[in-house]
């Protein structure tokens, strides 16, 4: 395959045009990169039936795949009319993540784009195994799309954690801001930088519940230290003061409220794999992903979004 950088759109198995199609086309044009679309098909019932009638199974599968291929070709044709260089394919596979790793090994990918699983119009939840595998393990930045508000993002929000005290964690904050800055630049979007200061969680973690009565004035000291660290990293990345937001409160509700107020299209955030599958992304990140107030671009340490 070609060794030029490209975007990968994971299309849903149902032949429906979703918000991820429009976002992928818009980003491909903005980033001036080719787009490859892949859909993964598999029917357990059909596969079981094929054990007893393999010839009929083969015909049924091939017929369905051909229909799906033609549908994707039609969608690719619509994108091409707008200047997107796009290819497509359909793969019959039971476990898509392993196939995605094959794509990653065979072509240099800048970004993987996929619709997030939608639970309702008011609450969007990522809960499919593939969503969580991508967020937890995928070595390439992953963009999960939840809304078709703006095909090309107009408002980008970078969320950082200034509590990171290890050198590698501080570098991770830089990577998050760099990724958000690049996305905002190519999309000609605004960029906001946010840190939510939850002093109660910090104090309880460090001192224990028994020490809470002694907390008078401590939160001001902790807040001042974090605000100073936040201002320093914002200054280093050239984020103007009016684009810096240091908020005190519970992280997830505060972020969701901010997203609604500023009509954020994409949150750029870091995801860190902790030990054990039950500790996938860290408490705040995991809760935020469950709430999904807008689309999310998740990056991991060491992975940069190519410009």
TrEMBL record:
<comment type="function">
    <text>Required for resistance to DNA-damaging agents.</text>
</comment>
<dbReference type="InterPro" id="IPR006016">
    <property type="entry name" value="UspA"/>
</dbReference>
<protein>
    <submittedName>
        <fullName>Universal stress protein</fullName>
    </submittedName>
</protein>
<feature type="domain" description="UspA">
    <location>
        <begin position="177"/>
        <end position="300"/>
    </location>
</feature>
<keyword id="KW-0963">Cytoplasm</keyword>
<dbReference type="GO" id="GO:0005737">
    <property type="term" value="C:cytoplasm"/>
</dbReference>
<comment type="similarity">
    <text>Belongs to the universal stress protein A family.</text>
</comment>
<dbReference type="InterPro" id="IPR006015">
    <property type="entry name" value="Universal_stress_UspA"/>
</dbReference>
<dbReference type="Pfam" id="PF00582">
    <property type="entry name" value="Usp"/>
</dbReference>
<feature type="domain" description="UspA">
    <location>
        <begin position="18"/>
        <end position="145"/>
    </location>
</feature>
């Amino acid at each position: 395959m070609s060794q030029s950088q490209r975007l990968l759109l994971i299309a849903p198995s149902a032949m429906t045009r979703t918000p991820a199609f429009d976002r992928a086309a818009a980003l491909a044009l903005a980033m001036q990169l080719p787009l490859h679309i892949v859909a993964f098909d598999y029917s357990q019932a059909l596969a079981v039936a094929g054990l007893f009638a393999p010839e009929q199974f083969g015909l049924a599968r091939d017929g369905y795949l051909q229909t799906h291929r033609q549908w994707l070709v039609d969608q690719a044709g619509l994108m091409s009319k707008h200047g997107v260089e796009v290819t497509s394919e359909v793969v019959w596979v039971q476990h898509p993540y392993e196939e995605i790793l094959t794509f990653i090994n065979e072509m240099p990918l800048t970004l993987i784009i996929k619709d997030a699983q939608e639970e309702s119009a008011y609450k969007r939840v990522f809960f499919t195994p593939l969503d969580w595998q991508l967020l937890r393990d995928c070595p390439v930045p992953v963009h999960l799309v939840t809304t078709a508000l703006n095909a090309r993002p107009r408002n980008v929000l970078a969320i950082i954690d200034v509590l990171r005290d290890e050198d590698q964690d501080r570098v991770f904050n830089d990577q998050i801001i760099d990724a958000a800055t690049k996305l905002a630049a190519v999309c000609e979007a605004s960029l906001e930088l946010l840190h939510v200061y939850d002093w109660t969680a910090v104090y309880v973690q460090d001192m224990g519940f028994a020490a809470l009565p002694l907390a008078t004035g401590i939160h001001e000291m902790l807040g001042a230290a974090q605000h100073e660290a936040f201002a320093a990293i914002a200054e280093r990345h050239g984020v103007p003061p009016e684009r810096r937001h240091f908020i005190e409160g519970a992280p997830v509700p505060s972020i969701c409220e901010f997203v609604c107020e500023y009509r954020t299209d994409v949150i750029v955030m870091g995801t860190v794999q902790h030990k054990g599958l039950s500790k996938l992304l860290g408490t705040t990140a995991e809760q935020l992903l469950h709430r999904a107030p807008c689309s999310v671009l998740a990056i991991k340490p060491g992975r940069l979004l190519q410009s």
